[in-house]
Amino acid sequence: MKIADLQNKFIDSIYAVTNPDLLTKIKDGKAPKEELLDIYRNNLRGTLSNALRITYPETHKNLGAKKFQKLCDEFIKKNRSLSGNLDDYGQGFANELEWLQHKSYLAKDVKPLNLKKLQKLTPEKLFEVKFKLHPSCFLHKNFVIFRQDFEVKLEKISRAETNFLLGVKDGLSLYKIYEKYEIDIQHCLQKYLTNGVLCAFTTS
């Protein structure tokens, strides 16, 4: 058997409850091979469960330790870690908002928008502007998640503001956003420039 095949079988056995096929390929060491395999399984279970607990603190709090661990065990069996970075593990585990808050916290930082440059634009030119959302900004239904001063914010917003941010995300100019949604552009601009959700802009 090739080394790569053996490694894949080993990984399969770590996630599975039993894998007698693998056990026929390895020898006992100072401890029985079944016990050694269980050690690896328990380490994996503990590591991934802890990663999920860190990412989903509210779910852990609401369910309690035992129920949360049961949910972790079920999730781990069906969802392997595909990255060496545990921050990438856990999408789809529980509340989508908690996952997006986690991603928002980890998002890269960028330089703030150049307000002086924006203020120099004529009203006609301003309507041609296309803004860019901060990397930490995520939209989920009628919620916006973003990071401000190293703190992740979760805010329920109006349909008008949701449409504004969706328009920005889709790369529409201010005029196209207004034309499509007929919203109060001035209000949205003031709010999302102030809180840093709009982090850059381009003009046609």
What's the average pLDDT?
91
What is the string of helix and strand elements?
A: HHHHHHHHEEEEHHHE
Structural class by helix and strand composition: mainly alpha
Strand content: 5-15%
Largest sheet: 3 strands, antiparallel
End-to-end separation in angstroms reads 60 Å
Helix content: 40-55%
- Low-confidence segments, given as residue ranges, are none
Note the total helix count: 11
In one word, what is the shape? elongated
Strand order of the largest sheet: 2-3-4
Backbone CA Rg: 24 Å
Annotation, overall tally of beta strands: 5
Present the secondary structure layout.
Blueprint: H1 3-15, H2 20-23, H3 33-55, H4 57-63, H5 65-78, H6 96-106, H7 115-119, H8 123-126, E1 130-133, E2 138-140, E3 143-148, E4 151-156, H9 159-169, H10 174-181, H11 185-194, E5 198-202
Antiparallel strand pairs: 1-5, 2-3, 3-4
Overview features:
elongated, mainly alpha, 3-stranded antiparallel beta sheet, 204 residues
Describe the structure.
- The structure is a single chain.
- By secondary structure, this protein is mostly helical.
- It has helices spanning 3-15, 20-23, 33-55, 57-63, 65-78, 96-106, 115-119, 123-126, 159-169, 174-181, 185-194, and strands spanning 130-133, 138-140, 143-148, 151-156, 198-202.
- A three-stranded antiparallel sheet has the order 2-3-4, sandwiched between helices. Strands 1-5 form a two-stranded antiparallel ribbon.
- The model has no long low-confidence stretch (mean pLDDT 91).
